Amino acid sequence: MVKTRLVILGGGESGVGTALLGKAKGYDVFLSDKGKIKEKYKEVLIHNEIEFEDEQHTESKILDADIVMKSPGIPDKVALVTKIRDRGIQVVSEIEFASKFTNATIVGITGSNGKTTTASLTHHILKQELEVGLSGNIGKSFAQQILEHDYPNYVLEISSFQLDDIADFKPHIAVLLNITPDHLDRYDYNFDNYIASKFRIIMNQTKEDYLIYDADDEVIAEWLKSHKVQSTLLPFSLTKTIENLPAGKHGGAYLDKEEIKITIDNNQIIMSTTNLALEGKHNIKNQMAASTVAHLLKIRKQTIRESLENFQGVEHRLEEVLKINKVRYINDSKATNVNSTYFALDSMDAPTIWIVGGVDKGNDYRELFPLINEKVKAIICLGVDNEKLLKTFGKMVDTIVETQYMTEAVKIAYKIAETGDAVLLSPACASFDLFENYEDRGRQFKDAVRNL
């Protein structure tokens, strides 16, 4: 019997995880990476006798695939991907491939911002009472977890790139946190294409499945008005009252003064917001979404409340690093788009020295203007090309400087800062011009602060 040939493009976490699962399930596996594969991943491939190549793509070995798993970082427009599709070879993402080998209950969380925090928080609540894995865009790959320890439940953080290459993938509970312009360079600079990509998370859902979404988000609300949706809808809101609705409607979550109220099928939880571990309006929404998932999966009210109060937060997301000479240093390296940085600046309650910059994904910075006028005293541009930032913000603050070194950016901030100020790394851009990824950027920031 001829084995199905699985070709994997990209030798990172998702690629190697898929290779391991594919081999275990009897596929003929070949992995190819145009860049250099990290030593730790090479060792795994060699140890498991999986054929691979790096720093090249051998087309003859790739184009005889039956199925191709493409790393989310590889754009569709790459010539090789076009050739693969022209041959009629199916291209899938890791979550599509892996989901075929599990019967787990899947919670899929997507949105332009807040995915990592909400996925981590949801996992934190659920793991108190359920066996649950955390994966997708976070932690160990979904494929590898299914192979090593197939949990009965998974919380997956899912990006639009991962959703672009699904066919049958279906989360039982989908969470759509928000949709703001991001990654438009991958979507022909057309916001509608990006919106459609996010809504692919519900394309295979039935009325037995759920969509938890932000009812305050105009983009989401408009899309739902004009498209027929099979899923059972559970909105959450800071401004609207969402109680149990008449026949067939399930309810949702809303903020009533200082309390979060979540109602599903006449069963209500009420939680005070005063002791929540995560601060800021955007985090109340993230906590509503996570709590609604937990309520659906029958987690006890007491467990949900306690979990919200003791959650530690996520590295690189408004992470307090140190206080030096009464100046707070805050690492928000995970803010890779404008909307994310908006939340960060909005939560600042001190004069702020803002470190910004990186690979601009077609950013429109105008929504930040009121916050910059109100809160930012100096801007440090940290990128290879800072021209757009200098032009956009040059007249808005007295001090604006540029550098290509994190250590220098932090030293400049240290010199400018006065007692009571805050230094905020919230780049609003991707990190790939000067750093390996946003984690590398955040760690370099923390190291530089600690070395002051």
Strand-helix topology:
Layout: E1 5-9, H1 13-24, E2 28-33, H2 39-47, E3 51-54, H3 59-62, E4 67-70, H4 79-86, E5 90-92, H5 94-99, E6 105-110, H6 115-126, E7 132-136, H7 142-148, E8 153-157, H8 160-164, E9 173-176, H9 191-199, E10 210-214, H10 218-226, E11 232-237, E12 251-256, E13 259-264, E14 267-272, H11 281-296, H12 301-310, E15 319-324, E16 327-331, H13 338-346, E17 352-356, H14 369-375, E18 376-382, H15 387-393, E19 399-403, H16 406-416, E20 422-425, H17 438-450
Parallel strand pairs: 1-2, 1-4, 2-3, 4-5, 6-8, 6-9, 7-8, 9-10, 10-11, 11-12, 16-20, 17-18, 17-20, 18-19
Antiparallel strand pairs: 12-13, 13-14, 15-16
Write up this protein.
- The structure is a single chain.
- The chain has about 450 residues and is of the alpha/beta class.
- It folds into 3 domains: about 5-90, NAD(P)-binding Rossmann-like Domain (Rossmann fold), CATH 3.40.50.720; about 95-310, UDP-N-acetylmuramoyl-L-alanine:D-glutamate ligase; about 320-450, Protein-Tyrosine Phosphatase, Chain A (Alpha-Beta Complex).
- Helices cover about 35% and strands about 25% of the residues.
- It has 17 helices and 20 strands.
- It has helices at about 15-25, 40-45, 60, 80-85, 95-100, 115-125, 140-150, 160-165, 190-200, 220-225, 280-295, 300-310, 340-345, 370-375, 385-395, 405-415, 440-450, and strands at about 5-10, 30-35, 50-55, 65-70, 90, 105-110, 130-135, 155, 175, 210-215, 230-235, 250-255, 260-265, 265-270, 320-325, 325-330, 350-355, 375-380, 400-405, 420-425.
- A 9-stranded mixed beta sheet has the order 7-8-6-9-10-11-12-13-14, covered by helices on one side. A 6-stranded mixed beta sheet has the order 15-16-20-17-18-19, with helices on both faces.
- Helix 1 (about 15-25) links the parallel strand 1 and strand 2.
- The longest helix has 16 residues, at about 280-295.
- It is globular.
- The N and C termini lie far apart (about 65 Å).
